[in-house]
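Please think about what follows:
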Amino acid sequence: MAEKIKKCGECRLCETRTNAVPGEGSASAKIVFIGEGPGKEEDLQGRPFVGAAGKFLTQMIESVGLKREDIFITNIVKCRPPENRDPEDDEVKTCTELYLWKQIELINPVLIATLGIHSMYRFLPQTFKISDVHGKPKKIENKRSGKSFNLLPLYHPAAALYNGGLRETLEKDFKRIPSMLKKLEKES
């Protein structure tokens, strides 16, 4: 899957990328973290969440006894949008249908954690407010496979870096992840 993503030319994002960013981590991860799209550092290195927000995310993951190599981190779109603009609907649709759903199906995680509103809105209606649903797991159905999965909306680490109040909220939400995983594993 990663090799297909690295060679992908299905949308215009491939024209301006340095590297596609398929995601990284364990193929048998119990939790998958999903952001919106690669930033400048991610585009340069071909790895997800390696800039300042990525370092903070790694700290958060480790603070709850997990290791980055035990989870899987990816994005909705696999190539950096030019000038860091939001990905356009057709770009999101292409990446989601060709790659993201397949990654989720192959990994089959116990929990999917969205990082920020852009990734949250790929799974939940835009009527939801992240301030109301962050840290609260939701049961979601994969319309492709009919299989349901557990979704955990979280604030994006970059937002928490620049807003002290969100940082504390994100830290509290992360502290719930280990017990949430144990509970969900028992249920599945």
Q: What stands out?
A: Residues 89-107 form the longest helix (19 residues).
